[in-house]
Specification:
heterodimer, A: 314 residues, alpha/beta, Rossmann fold, 2 domains, five-stranded parallel sheet, four-stranded parallel sheet, 9 strands, B: 430 residues, Urease, subunit C, domain 1, eight-stranded mixed sheet, 30% helix
Chain lengths: 314, 430
Amino acid sequence: MTKKWTRKDLLGLRDLTREEIELLLETAKSFKEISLRPVKKVPALRGKTVANLFFEPSTRTRISFELAEKRLSADTINLVGSSSSVVKGESLIDTVRNIESLKVDIVVMRHSSSGAPHRLAPLLKASVINAGDGINEHPTQALLDMFTVREKKGKLAGLKISFIGDILHSRVARSNIWGLTKMGAKVTVCGPKTLLPPQIEKLGVSATTDLFEAVKDADVVNLLRIQLERQSESFFPSIREYANSYQIDREILKQAKPDVLIMHPGPVNRGVEITSDVVDGPYSVILDQVTHGLAVRMAVLYLLSGGGARGEEE
Amino acid sequence: MNLLIRKAHIVDPKNKIDQTLDLRIKNGHVAEIGKDLEASGEKVLEAKGFHLLPGLIDLHTHFREPGFEQKETIESGGRAALRGGFIGCVSMPNTDPACDHQSVIDNIIRKAREVPFHLFPAGALSKGREGKELSEMADLKRAGIWAVTDDGSWVPDSLLMRRAMEYASMLDLLVVSHCEDSRLSAKGVMNEGLMSTRLGLKGIPNESEEVAVARDIQLARLTGARLHLAHVSTEGSVQLIREAKERGLKVTAEVTPHHLALTDQDVEGYDTHRKMSPPLRTEKDREALVQGLKEGTIDCVATDHAPHTAEEKMLEFDEAPFGVIGLETALSVCLTELVHKKKMTLNEVVERMSLRPAQILKLQEGFGEILKGAEANVTLVDLDEEWVVSPDDFVSKSRNSCFIGRKLKGRVAATICMGKLWSYRKELKG
């Protein structure tokens, strides 16, 4: 590999260059191969300690990171806290500094407040991996989405990739927008006007409230989970009306490219943003995403622990 | 106190003084203003190269006492004000207990006198600042309040606001409004726009303020009350106020130094010292605020000095409290951004930081000017001193300034307030 990884942290795709994203995706390729071996463990992070700090409930991301760490032979500790900033009256920085004093090498952090890892990272010696901060970024999810598209399509540049749903509150969409636009994809975001972030077009994407327009000739349709509480906040009148306007079913998919990919970060609300037959249908790569999540997170952990700098792995 | 200040450049917009003169203070009062005054045994300050201004007055501060003394006290806030050249401040009533009872006001005024410092307390507009029932404004006025407000919150109940304005106008009390429709703010933490989209933070639209400004202007028309709009932050608000003034309404407005100097671009990095209410807006809004202040649509500069502890500001961006301190940097920021950048003259800035605030509050003669016979309240400034704002230098109990690390040009060198000299430069110790 020509380019070396030089960053201490992975906070978001916003800060990364195209080359750095390439390096992450390339590194993930070799880790995907490891998961197919009969013995799935490598010693790349032996002797390293990773702390998984999830201050907001998470199942998928947490399990994916944990497994990635184990397959790299890292020692792991887990803290699952409340979404509140203060655990037992202790501030976030004190909590994390205490854990760092146990000589932790990498901190994987999920937090309900946007920017929380960005504020912590400069104060810590340990590397920080953002596993989702508020409505801001979820870089490893976007990387695994990009990895999946590249695997299936062989490229990202020039593809029409549409995100449907609650764009406003979606860290998945935001990270994907930063990453995909850098890789030359044509990104469209689609949802009711109440759920489109202000001036989103200025990030280099097309925005529409018309599902037909978003799906038309799309190479990839990435669905975002619609959260039921948004209804009580008057973002839309009812789940029923939302589904009528924005649900992806077999019919609307006829507008997309014949080899369209259907993606979803999970958990899926079957029958709301997507029909069951599409979830389980031939276009769906939702479970591949989960598999690739593991490879991508192994790659991130590996590079941040200094792996890329040493050249070949052990 | 007897003092002779020699060869200072006096700038007094009200009395149209803008030249190098001497000022004699006798028994804490202005005794003489003139050329080449002879010392008659009093202490002499050689102030050549300094500018002497009527003492600054700030219509918007939070001194946090009683209830939040860990953030600021009347003593520490008063000293911070003096360090910034202010000789008087309006203190906001969002204390604990709220300033909705005359005994709280009594206590505040007594503590200010010990500094000594001029405090012009604002009383709560509603009981407990809950926006439900009127506070006992007449009693509060007897105790010494100069304005009523529920600052920190808007009064969402339009009928209560109407009654408050009618009742306050009967007592000739200024009504100060923190214009923000909190439903529209929707738990936002910064300006809504491209930057909130980029940073993934929840936004507060300009209209959250403007909707409130528009309603309160109409109620001022209905009631004839003196309405003062606190910390105006948007281009749309400036336009609404401009129109209200053209209609001849008794509406005045203030802008903070941080809204004149910074924009939502400065929220990059999630620094909670850039989190305040209203939020930093766009460059277009900032330019409109500077223009509004210059043309007089916005009457004055007020700091919205809002101390918070380091622990609170260490929290995540969503969780940290809104607000920044401002007393010790306000004049320097205005000199740097407005005078040195030639947006406004020194005379205009002085007018908007001393005379206009005094007029809006209807303070007695002598405030906002240098008047023979009146108590001497003046500010001595070095227009050219360059300094970098450092957290260690604050007199305030709190350090939550949005200007830390910034280089400013112009700084207060001494303040004279209630017959006492506060010198911040060796050569001015006399």
